[in-house]
Amino acid sequence: MSGNGLDRMNRRFAAVLRNVKEVVEPALVKGAEEIAATQRQLAPEDTGALKDSITVTPPGQTTPAYSQPGGSRTAKDGEALVTVGNVAVRYPHLVEYGTSEAPAQPFFWPGFRLARKRAQDRIKRSIRKAVRTGLETP
Question: Which DSSP helix (H) or strand (E) runs through 81?
Fold first, then answer.
């Protein structure tokens, strides 16, 4: 491949990478929001604090302190996190898995499983679109 052909191909690949980040990030966040909405529908009502503590963290942002699973951490590029819990709501795992005195009321993982496929499909579509758009760039 000549120098010109290689340069052209490198520009096209660079355009694809730019497009992927620009197009996929909103799809990630929207998918995470849908997962969180499903989890909120399944969460026990009681005071509403548990439902309100379900949070979506976009890339580059930090999850709330004491959130589960995993506690406070920063979402990487290409990653949107759905967590439950915060400083005031430290009991989501007890609701999800139950205790010796209270039965389990699963909402987090069932909500994730119910909404995951749709979120994955949206992300795949956005990646395909970004690649097509990037390859069309001269």
Answer: strand 81-83
| Contact present, 76 and 28 (Cβ < 8 Å) | no
pLDDT band at 2 (very low <50, low <70, confident <90, very high): low
- 116 is written with which tokens? 């995951």
Helix-helix angle 3-42:108-136, to 10 degrees: 160
Q: Does the pLDDT value for residue 61 go beyond 70?
A: yes
Distance between CA atoms of 46 and 62, rounded to whole angstroms? Answer: 27
CA distance 132 to 126: 10
Q: How far apart are CA 65 and CA 59, in angstroms?
A: 17
Look at residues 24, 25, 81 and name the one whose alpha carbon lies nearest to residue 56.
81
Q: What is the mean pLDDT of residues 44-58?
A: 94
Tokens of 100: 């010796």
Note the pLDDT tens digit of each residue in 108-117: 999 999 999 9
CA atoms within 13 A on the CB side of 1: 7
The model's pTM: 0.84
Amino acid at 4: N
